[in-house]
C-alpha cells in the first residue's frame, strides 16, 4: 500500500494551536499525513511532498517596502525569514504550496508583491467584520484553478485578517475578490500554488472548503509518485 503524502505545515515557534489542529484534521480527512515546520525545528523539510503556509501574525512591513510601524500585531521576523526560505526551497523543487491568510500574503511578497498594512489602508470607510464563521461573499473568477476546484463562482467564507494583498506579485494571478479586496491568488504552470485570504481549515463542514484540501493533497500525491 502506497504511503500517504507528507505535508509540512509552517507555523510559528509558539502558538497557533487551533489553526494547526484544524489544518491537521483537514489533511487527515483528505488522506495525508502532516508534520509541523517551525523556524526552530524543521528537520523534516527534506521529506515533505507539499507545504502549507498557515495564518498568524502580521508580516514585517520592511519586507514589502512598508513603514516600520505599519502593523497591528507583534511581528515574528524569525518566522518571516524561515517561511520565505521554505517558499524558495519548495519552488525550486516544484513542491505544491497552499497558502492560508498570512500565508497568501507572504507568498505574494515572495513574488515581489506588497500589502495593505491594514484593511483601512485600502478603504478607511470600509466596515470590516472578523468571524471564524462564513460571513462574506467571495467571488471566484471562472478561468482559474480555484473555480475548477470549487465549481462555483461565489462562495461564503470567513474573515480573520487585518492586512490584505495590494500589488500582486510577479507571475501570480488574482482569482477571487470580496468588495475589491483580493481573496485568492494562484500561479500558473506550477503543480499547485494556490493561496486564499480566508481560513478554510475552520470551515471543514462546508464541502467547497474541504475540496481545497482535497485538491491540494491530490497534487501532493502526484508529486510524490
TrEMBL record:
Keyword NAD belongs to the record: no
Keywords: Hydrolase
Translocase keyword on record: no
TM annotation in the entry: none
PROSITE patterns for this protein: GATASE_TYPE_1
Recorded GO MF terms: hydrolase activity
Classification via PANTHER family: GLUTAMINE AMIDOTRANSFERASE PB2B2.05-RELATED
Protein name: Gamma-glutamyl-gamma-aminobutyrate hydrolase
Species of origin: Malaciobacter canalis
Amino acid at each position: 500500500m502506497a504511503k500517504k503524502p507528507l505535508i509540512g505545515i509552517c507555523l510559528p515557534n509558539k502558538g497557533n494551536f487551533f489553526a494547526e489542529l484544524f489544518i491537521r484534521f483537514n489533511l487527515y480527512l483528505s488522506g495525508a499525513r502532516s508534520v509541523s515546520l517551525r523556524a526552530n525545528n524543521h528537520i523534516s523539510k527534506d521529506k515533505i511532498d507539499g507545504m502549507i503556509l498557515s495564518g498568524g501574525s502580521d508580516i514585517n512591513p520592511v519586507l514589502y517596502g512598508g513603514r516600520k510601524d505599519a502593523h497591528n500585531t507583534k511581528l515574528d521576523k524569525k518566522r518571516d525569514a524561515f517561511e520565505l526560505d521554505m517558499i524558495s526551497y519548495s519552488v525550486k523543487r516544484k513542491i505544491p504550496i497552499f497558502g492560508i491568510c498570512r500565508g497568501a500574503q507572504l507568498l505574494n511578497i515572495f513574488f515581489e508583491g506588497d500589502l495593505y498594512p491594514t484593511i483601512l489602508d485600502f478603504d478607511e470607510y470600509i466596515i470590516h467584520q472578523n468571524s471564524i464563521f462564513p460571513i462574506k461573499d467571495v467571488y471566484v473568477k471562472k478561468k482559474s484553478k480555484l473555480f475548477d476546484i470549487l465549481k462555483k463562482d461565489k462562495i461564503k467564507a470567513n474573515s480573520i485578517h487585518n492586512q490584505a494583498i495590494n500589488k500582486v506579485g510577479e507571475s501570480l494571478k488574482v482569482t477571487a475578490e470580496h468588495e475589491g479586496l483580493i481573496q485568492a491568488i494562484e500561479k500558473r504552470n506550477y503543480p499547485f500554488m494556490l493561496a486564499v485570504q480566508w481560513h478554510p481549515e475552520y470551515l471543514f463542514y462546508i464541502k467547497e472548503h474541504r475540496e481545497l484540501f482535497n485538491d491540494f493533497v491530490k497534487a501532493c500525491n502526484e508529486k510524490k509518485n
